[in-house]
Design brief:
- The chain is an alpha/beta fold.
- The protein has 2 domains: 30 residues, no CATH class; 172 residues, Carbonic anhydrase (Beta-carbonic Anhydrase, Chain A), CATH 3.40.1050.10.
- It is built from 9 helices and 6 strands.
- The structure holds zinc ion.
Protein backbone atom coordinates (compact mmCIF):
# COMPACT_ATOMS: atom_id res chain seq x y z
CA UNK A 1 0.00 0.00 0.00
CA UNK A 2 2.96 2.34 0.47
CA UNK A 3 3.23 2.77 -3.30
CA UNK A 4 -0.41 3.86 -3.46
CA UNK A 5 -0.07 6.21 -0.49
CA UNK A 6 2.98 7.87 -2.02
CA UNK A 7 1.10 8.18 -5.29
CA UNK A 8 -1.88 9.83 -3.60
CA UNK A 9 0.36 12.42 -2.04
CA UNK A 10 2.19 13.12 -5.28
CA UNK A 11 -1.09 13.40 -7.20
CA UNK A 12 -2.55 15.86 -4.72
CA UNK A 13 0.53 18.00 -4.27
CA UNK A 14 1.84 18.01 -7.86
CA UNK A 15 -0.69 16.86 -10.48
CA UNK A 16 -3.75 18.56 -8.98
CA UNK A 17 -1.83 21.80 -8.54
CA UNK A 18 -0.60 21.72 -12.14
CA UNK A 19 -4.11 21.03 -13.50
CA UNK A 20 -6.23 23.13 -11.17
CA UNK A 21 -8.40 24.57 -13.92
CA UNK A 22 -9.20 21.13 -15.34
CA UNK A 23 -10.34 19.72 -12.00
CA UNK A 24 -12.35 22.83 -11.18
CA UNK A 25 -14.19 22.57 -14.50
CA UNK A 26 -14.76 18.82 -14.00
CA UNK A 27 -16.38 19.56 -10.65
CA UNK A 28 -19.16 21.29 -12.58
CA UNK A 29 -19.94 18.20 -14.69
CA UNK A 30 -18.68 15.68 -17.22
CA UNK A 31 -18.98 15.60 -20.99
CA UNK A 32 -17.01 12.52 -22.13
CA UNK A 33 -16.99 11.93 -25.87
CA UNK A 34 -16.66 8.15 -25.66
CA UNK A 35 -17.74 5.14 -23.66
CA UNK A 36 -14.77 2.79 -23.28
CA UNK A 37 -15.58 -0.82 -22.33
CA UNK A 38 -12.56 -2.91 -21.45
CA UNK A 39 -11.20 -5.70 -19.26
CA UNK A 40 -10.48 -5.32 -15.54
CA UNK A 41 -6.94 -6.61 -16.16
CA UNK A 42 -4.37 -4.40 -14.40
CA UNK A 43 -2.17 -4.25 -17.50
CA UNK A 44 -4.54 -2.13 -19.56
CA UNK A 45 -5.07 1.53 -18.70
CA UNK A 46 -7.56 3.30 -21.02
CA UNK A 47 -6.47 6.85 -20.20
CA UNK A 48 -2.81 5.95 -20.60
CA UNK A 49 -3.10 4.21 -23.98
CA UNK A 50 -5.37 6.90 -25.42
CA UNK A 51 -3.48 9.72 -23.69
CA UNK A 52 -6.74 11.20 -22.44
CA UNK A 53 -7.52 13.28 -19.39
CA UNK A 54 -10.04 12.81 -16.59
CA UNK A 55 -13.45 13.65 -18.06
CA UNK A 56 -12.58 12.55 -21.60
CA UNK A 57 -13.79 8.93 -21.57
CA UNK A 58 -16.49 7.13 -19.56
CA UNK A 59 -14.95 3.80 -18.62
CA UNK A 60 -16.67 0.50 -17.87
CA UNK A 61 -14.45 -2.41 -16.88
CA UNK A 62 -15.16 -6.03 -16.11
CA UNK A 63 -13.62 -9.48 -16.45
CA UNK A 64 -13.21 -10.11 -20.18
CA UNK A 65 -14.74 -6.82 -21.46
CA UNK A 66 -18.07 -8.61 -21.67
CA UNK A 67 -21.39 -6.91 -22.49
CA UNK A 68 -24.33 -9.14 -21.55
CA UNK A 69 -27.23 -8.85 -24.00
CA UNK A 70 -29.90 -6.42 -22.81
CA UNK A 71 -32.00 -8.04 -20.07
CA UNK A 72 -29.63 -10.98 -19.61
CA UNK A 73 -27.97 -9.61 -16.49
CA UNK A 74 -29.06 -7.39 -13.63
CA UNK A 75 -25.56 -6.05 -13.20
CA UNK A 76 -24.56 -2.42 -13.41
CA UNK A 77 -23.20 -2.54 -16.94
CA UNK A 78 -26.55 -2.02 -18.67
CA UNK A 79 -27.12 0.98 -16.41
CA UNK A 80 -23.69 2.39 -17.27
CA UNK A 81 -24.32 1.96 -21.01
CA UNK A 82 -27.76 3.57 -20.74
CA UNK A 83 -26.38 6.47 -18.69
CA UNK A 84 -23.46 7.09 -21.03
CA UNK A 85 -25.50 6.89 -24.22
CA UNK A 86 -28.85 8.42 -23.25
CA UNK A 87 -27.76 10.93 -20.60
CA UNK A 88 -24.15 11.84 -21.37
CA UNK A 89 -24.80 11.42 -25.10
CA UNK A 90 -21.43 9.91 -25.92
CA UNK A 91 -20.81 9.78 -29.65
CA UNK A 92 -18.50 6.78 -29.66
CA UNK A 93 -18.36 3.37 -27.96
CA UNK A 94 -15.12 1.40 -27.91
CA UNK A 95 -15.01 -2.25 -26.87
CA UNK A 96 -11.35 -3.01 -26.19
CA UNK A 97 -9.95 -6.44 -25.49
CA UNK A 98 -6.29 -7.23 -24.86
CA UNK A 99 -3.72 -9.91 -25.56
CA UNK A 100 -3.02 -12.56 -22.90
CA UNK A 101 -6.49 -12.06 -21.40
CA UNK A 102 -7.00 -14.40 -18.44
CA UNK A 103 -10.76 -14.33 -18.88
CA UNK A 104 -10.49 -15.54 -22.47
CA UNK A 105 -8.03 -18.18 -21.33
CA UNK A 106 -10.69 -19.35 -18.89
CA UNK A 107 -13.25 -19.42 -21.67
CA UNK A 108 -11.03 -21.78 -23.67
CA UNK A 109 -10.22 -23.90 -20.61
CA UNK A 110 -13.33 -24.15 -18.38
CA UNK A 111 -11.52 -26.55 -16.01
CA UNK A 112 -9.25 -23.66 -15.08
CA UNK A 113 -12.17 -21.64 -13.67
CA UNK A 114 -13.99 -24.57 -12.06
CA UNK A 115 -13.08 -23.25 -8.60
CA UNK A 116 -14.18 -19.72 -9.54
CA UNK A 117 -17.98 -20.08 -9.83
CA UNK A 118 -18.68 -16.37 -10.24
CA UNK A 119 -16.15 -16.10 -13.06
CA UNK A 120 -17.50 -19.26 -14.66
CA UNK A 121 -21.04 -17.85 -14.56
CA UNK A 122 -19.96 -14.48 -15.96
CA UNK A 123 -18.14 -16.14 -18.87
CA UNK A 124 -21.44 -17.65 -20.00
CA UNK A 125 -22.08 -14.25 -21.58
CA UNK A 126 -19.17 -15.06 -23.91
CA UNK A 127 -20.65 -18.33 -25.12
CA UNK A 128 -20.94 -16.91 -28.65
CA UNK A 129 -17.21 -16.25 -28.61
CA UNK A 130 -16.40 -19.77 -27.44
CA UNK A 131 -18.57 -21.33 -30.11
CA UNK A 132 -17.22 -19.12 -32.92
CA UNK A 133 -13.67 -20.10 -32.03
CA UNK A 134 -14.48 -23.77 -31.58
CA UNK A 135 -16.25 -24.03 -34.94
CA UNK A 136 -14.13 -21.69 -37.07
CA UNK A 137 -10.60 -22.21 -35.78
CA UNK A 138 -10.16 -25.90 -34.90
CA UNK A 139 -6.65 -25.89 -36.41
CA UNK A 140 -5.23 -22.97 -34.42
CA UNK A 141 -3.65 -23.66 -31.03
CA UNK A 142 -1.76 -22.05 -28.16
CA UNK A 143 -1.30 -18.27 -27.89
CA UNK A 144 -2.59 -17.76 -31.44
CA UNK A 145 -5.86 -19.39 -30.41
CA UNK A 146 -6.05 -17.13 -27.38
CA UNK A 147 -5.45 -14.01 -29.49
CA UNK A 148 -8.16 -15.04 -31.94
CA UNK A 149 -10.50 -15.62 -29.01
CA UNK A 150 -9.75 -12.10 -27.73
CA UNK A 151 -10.54 -10.68 -31.18
CA UNK A 152 -13.70 -12.71 -31.71
CA UNK A 153 -14.87 -11.78 -28.23
CA UNK A 154 -14.67 -8.06 -28.95
CA UNK A 155 -16.89 -8.57 -32.00
CA UNK A 156 -19.28 -10.90 -30.16
CA UNK A 157 -19.67 -8.40 -27.31
CA UNK A 158 -20.40 -5.65 -29.82
CA UNK A 159 -23.26 -7.82 -31.11
CA UNK A 160 -24.55 -7.93 -27.54
CA UNK A 161 -24.04 -4.19 -27.17
CA UNK A 162 -26.32 -3.61 -30.15
CA UNK A 163 -29.21 -5.28 -28.27
CA UNK A 164 -29.29 -2.40 -25.78
CA UNK A 165 -32.21 -0.12 -26.75
CA UNK A 166 -30.39 3.16 -26.21
CA UNK A 167 -27.52 1.97 -28.40
CA UNK A 168 -29.82 0.58 -31.08
CA UNK A 169 -31.86 3.78 -31.26
CA UNK A 170 -28.85 6.08 -31.60
CA UNK A 171 -27.18 3.81 -34.12
CA UNK A 172 -30.34 3.94 -36.21
CA UNK A 173 -30.20 7.74 -36.17
CA UNK A 174 -26.54 7.77 -37.09
CA UNK A 175 -25.62 9.45 -33.81
CA UNK A 176 -23.32 6.75 -32.49
CA UNK A 177 -20.22 4.94 -33.75
CA UNK A 178 -18.87 1.65 -32.42
CA UNK A 179 -15.24 0.54 -32.57
CA UNK A 180 -13.63 -2.90 -32.02
CA UNK A 181 -10.14 -2.63 -30.53
CA UNK A 182 -7.53 -5.02 -29.14
CA UNK A 183 -4.59 -3.73 -27.06
CA UNK A 184 -1.35 -5.65 -27.50
CA UNK A 185 0.37 -5.53 -24.12
CA UNK A 186 3.90 -6.33 -25.26
CA UNK A 187 4.12 -3.56 -27.87
CA UNK A 188 1.56 -1.02 -26.68
CA UNK A 189 -0.14 -1.14 -30.09
CA UNK A 190 -3.89 -0.96 -30.53
CA UNK A 191 -5.45 -2.97 -33.37
CA UNK A 192 -8.88 -2.19 -34.78
CA UNK A 193 -11.26 -4.38 -36.71
CA UNK A 194 -11.56 -3.39 -40.36
CA UNK A 195 -14.91 -4.57 -41.73
CA UNK A 196 -13.70 -4.46 -45.32
CA UNK A 197 -10.78 -6.83 -44.78
CA UNK A 198 -12.33 -8.78 -41.91
CA UNK A 199 -9.07 -8.43 -40.00
CA UNK A 200 -7.61 -6.51 -37.08
CA UNK A 201 -4.96 -4.00 -38.19
CA UNK A 202 -2.87 -1.48 -36.20
CA UNK A 203 -4.31 1.96 -35.57
CA UNK A 204 -1.81 4.67 -36.35
CA UNK A 205 -1.41 8.05 -37.97
CA UNK A 206 -1.81 6.41 -41.37
CA UNK A 207 -4.90 4.51 -40.26
CA UNK A 208 -6.91 6.53 -37.73
CA UNK A 209 -9.75 4.90 -35.77
CA UNK A 210 -12.59 3.82 -38.05
CA UNK A 211 -16.07 2.87 -36.90
CA UNK A 212 -17.79 -0.40 -37.68
CA UNK A 213 -20.69 -0.50 -40.12
CA UNK A 214 -24.08 -0.62 -38.48
CA UNK A 215 -24.82 -4.15 -39.57
CA UNK A 216 -23.39 -7.36 -38.21
CA UNK A 217 -19.76 -8.06 -39.05
CA UNK A 218 -17.51 -10.91 -38.12
CA UNK A 219 -13.85 -11.65 -38.35
CA UNK A 220 -12.89 -13.52 -41.51
CA UNK A 221 -11.63 -16.92 -40.45
CA UNK A 222 -8.14 -17.62 -41.71
ZN1 LIG B 1 -8.61 -9.57 -19.76
Amino acid sequence: MQKLATGLHKFHSEVCVAHQDLFKSLARGQRPEALFITCADSRINPNLITQTQPGDIFIVRNVGNIVPPYGASNGSEAAAIEFAVAHLEVKHIIVCGHTHCGAMRGLLDPAGVEELPAVKGWLQHAELTRRLVQENYPHIEGEDRLTITVEENVLAQIENLRTHPTVRARLARGELCIYAWVFKIETGQVFQFEATSGQFTPIGEQAPPSALPETTVFRRAS
